[in-house]
Amino acid sequence: MRWFVNSGVLVIVSLATPLLAQTTLDYPVGERQPYHYDSGFRPNQGEAANVVSEHLVRVDGAAWLRLYFGDVELEPGSFVRITSQLDNEIQELDARGLAMWSNSSAYFNGDSVYIELVAAAKTRRNRILINEVARAMAVHPVGGCAYPCGICGADNRVASDEDWSGRLFPVGCTASVWNTDSCLVSAGHCITGGLVIQFNVPNSNPNCSTNNPPVADQFPITAFDFLNGGVGNDWAVMTTGTNNLGQTIFGRYGVLRPIASSPPVGGQSVGVWGFGIDNQCTLSQTQQTDSASVNSVSGMFFTHTVDITCGSSGSAVIRNGEILGIVTHCPCPGAATRMDRPLFVTAREELCGGPPEGACCFDDGTCTVDTESGCNAVGGSYQGDGSNCSPNLCPQPTGACCFADGTCTVDTQSGCTAVGGSYQGDDISCSPKTCPLPSIGACCVPDNFCVETTPNSCSGLNGTYQGDGTTCLPDDPCVPLTGACCVPDGSCGVVTLELCDLVGGNYQGDGSDCSPNPCPPPTTGACCFNDGSCQDGLTDTDCPAAGGTYQGDGSVCAKTFCRECEFNGDCDDGNECNGLETCVGGICQPGIPLDCDDGNPCTDDDCSGGDCINTNNFATCDDGNVCTESDACDAGVCAGEAIDNCTACDQRRLCRRTGVPERALPAGPARGVCGGCGLHRRRRELRQQQLPSGLRGQ
Question: How large a percentage of the chain has pLDDT more than 70?
Fold first, then answer.
């Protein structure tokens, strides 16, 4: 029967009965078991990607694990990270990667893997669900294939490490890379869902359980076309995805075995590279090779005497470095499907495309991937089948590369940029002079020394560049500016701003000096000593230094009691107006003077004999009435002269005339009948002030 995948539909085609009743050589590995884990929907409202769910999958005693996911939702930028607890191998899968891997993972060594759900920033619907786990618990014969089926006498296979031949799991078969698109050929009976092809396969364990290569050496099968109809009707062609590094198989290893250009002939020498089992466990299902010859040839298949066995299904039979057929059945002589079977040829063309491609180089250094004929048609230089543009191996054009010091070299654009130069264009030479001379300016280096140099050189000297075109003479820009600095004791010195700040001074500005002294004298006051004496004119620093007690800024000895005392009565000075003196700590302290302020600006307030005396004065004042002027004190009362016609104003009419609403007029004497008049008069005065002097009063 022929099975093939086309637009997601599995099609079955009935074919003729197999010609030979022989045994297929597939040798499946591992078992699948149910496993349930659901992270639920996990949001990430942060500004960066973050782990929002963690889970450890463990199956005690397993040699390896593989995960099969259920419904997974990953918003753009979110992904699942899987880490082997045995060897720290890591695979990261976003939504596109999971689809490419058929909602499964690579194979991980050991009995446990750590799962992390990494959610992109500002996402809400991220969820992973695990339905099954595949694991290898024990090794046992599978199906109808048993060693040494296919071994022709003694087992002559030897270990090999060809990177075009891979191990196909979980079916336990072999597949080979035949074109630069990383397409594979194998046996049709090896096809199932969720296939993974492995390269650089390590030795197996002493109990024959397999070990897996690094995740970077594992690739998913993404599509296939196959026929599983017995000997001669047994073939498969497959496409592959990328590994965890985004590489294709051919992109990673760069080797393949092309399809043979001529059919098999009896007696020809051939070889096989496959992943068959072995009675020496460490070599079981690892890559081994043997060579022998073609035994017989029919229209659909041929037989051979190369040693093959269980796990060798799908191996390529190689002649002169080309694939002659696909191993399918044992015993010896083994059977292989011919590569020139028409259906097989058509399937390869339909699934994997036409002629090979390679890198195509152009004169400007650009590179594209094209067929040889396509490259030649557009004037390119074909670099060979399978060559690629990453990295770009095409010769790059060169041109002048200018540096900050005015020097010039010829380099490629990328080379010039890498060394900090400025690329001037393809085919530009360094002669005549191409690169501009560097800018020069004053540079202030440590210790305020000035040199004239380039910005780069100034930076190398740990200096400060003063700008293009600046000079060190006649005005040296590196000499620090100074000015007068006033310190708390009233003295003055000409220093820099930094030094003035350091000594706690007050900088008077760049260029200021100390002649005349701009610094205010220090604040002084009375200083009392233990012997009862008092000294005026000492500062709050000088007084304690002299052994005295400072009485406060502005205090004077005439109003200060410094004598010693024992009782309050010892301090009475007989003046009741300055309050009751007290004895505190053996020193007389002044009392609180009597407050004689009556709050009237039209009286002068004084004290005599302990009584307050409030005497009328004739000072100017403000009676608070906008309808009066020339306010002055008389008989202890503030009054002014009435403004003409102010009381005759009609409030409402005046408010309309001035544009001021009645409710906006101030309270008190300014409001009422005269309020509007006052406002109108004030506005008239303001308008008069704004007129030219020759027009005022008109």
Answer: 88
